[in-house]
Write a structure and sequence with these properties.
The chain has about 180 residues and is an all-alpha fold. The chain contains 6 helices and no strands. About 30% of the residues are buried.
Length: about 180
């Protein structure tokens, strides 16, 4: 295991998590990018899932917990799976597609949960459609945040790898958890 790389990746993730505490537009958050990045970087599936979800949970303890958390966390767990799919063949195009898919997953899952769990919309097709339509402005922020933070995370690591050859060794190269 390359401890320098592990330290760098963990530092990048912690820095991105701290961005949740900076004033930002609704849904312009680093967590989906962290989930994708962790899935792509950690060969240990356990670390790939635990690190972004733990980062989210710890920050949620400060920011506040709510009834939709299982759906939010579930969407980020699926985004980790997208990152795992990037491990063997990561290109800019595949990464961009994964970011877009992650944003759509978050939108579909969490807004379905808003409709199903909360009493904000009638429990019929029209209510579900109204819920999704009302969420469209938030999707723009989700997509922009996911693109921005993914560029920072993946780009930051690529920049560091280009400058420091010893960081190019994969994390947990011998682990197969």
């Amino acid at each position: 295991m390359n401890k320098n790389r592990l330290t760098l990746v963990a530092g990048i993730i912690l820095a991105a998590t701290a961005a949740r505490f900076i004033p930002h537009p609704p849904n312009f958050s680093p967590i989906a990018a962290i989930a994708l990045f962790a899935g792509a970087q950690f060969s240990s599936r356990g670390k790939a899932f635990i690190i972004p979800l733990a980062a989210m949970f710890l920050s949620d303890l400060i920011l506040g917990l709510h009834s939709l958390i299982p759906f939010v966390y579930g969407s980020f767990a699926l985004t980790v799976c997208l990152g795992i799919g990037l491990r063997q063949n990561r290109t800019i195009v595949r990464t961009l597609v994964s970011v877009l898919l992650g944003s759509v997953l978050f939108f579909v899952i969490t807004n379905f949960a808003v409709w199903a769990v909360l009493d904000a919309y009638p429990k019929n097709g029209a209510g579900l459609a109204a819920c999704y339509i009302a969420a469209i402005p938030y999707f723009q922020n989700t997509l922009l945040g996911d693109l921005f933070y993914s560029a920072v995370l993946f780009g930051g690591l690529a920049f560091a790898e280009a400058r420091f050859a010893h960081l190019r060794e994969p994390l947990n190269a011998s682990a197969h958890a």
